[in-house]
Amino acid sequence: YTSVEVYYPLDVATDSSGNVYVMEYYNNRIKVFNSSGAYLRSFGGYGNSCNRWAYARQFAIYNDKIYIADTYNHRIKVLNLNGGCVWNNGARYYYPHAIAVGSSYVYVGHNNSYISHYTTSGVHQTGAYNAGSNLSYSWGMSLNSAGNKLVIADYVKNRLVEFTVSGQSLSYSQATSASYSSSNGYFRRPTDAAYDSSGNIYALDLYGHRLQKFNSSLTYQAKTGSYSTSSGFRYPYGMHIDSSDNIYGFLT
Q1: Could you tell me which residues come within 8 angstroms of residue 192 by beta carbon, excluding any fewer than 6 positions away?
Q2: Range with the lowest mean pLDDT among 36-50, 94-108, 112-126?
């Protein structure tokens, strides 16, 4: 098949068929590839209509619907797998950045201490949780498979923060040490995190050019990657772990 360039990718996700969706930041579009890497289609573009957005950084796929945190249009967009409009909420949200979707609620992180939550049907806001000093800037976030834990890559505090989820309610659970460091278990700007099926947490370290693994107690386990195009972890921004524990990521 023909190789297709992906320009400045910032996030990645998979659908139920194993197709891979990659968000291009500057082009404001998503490119789709099959599980073998063959290019299938693309959609999106700059704008404020339902299937266009303005420099979104994160999206999520749940039940084969695409949820986009449309950062500079201050909206949440919901699309089908071909980029068609499912829901375009006219409400305004404060710089939605990170996004995670569960069975009943959509959780959205911002460039502050708040985590907003919305219904998955119509994306109506049901409230917001102020994490206070426990959170500064949600760059990436993910729910575990049970939907009762939410992990956030806090870009400013240089740490992972985990919250317990119960319906609309969130509460602080635990966090890694907060320090700008290249030592094992620390970060120089974490950008995304995700759970595997056993509850282990994997997180990207932007300027550490690596992927780190932690157990469910947020104890450091292992790492991989370095500043190299061959290692696959040169300025990593987005990652995804599918239901078979395959890890997807890219370099910029």
Answers
A1: 11, 58, 139, 140, 142, 153, 203, 204, 236, 237, 238, 239
A2: 112-126
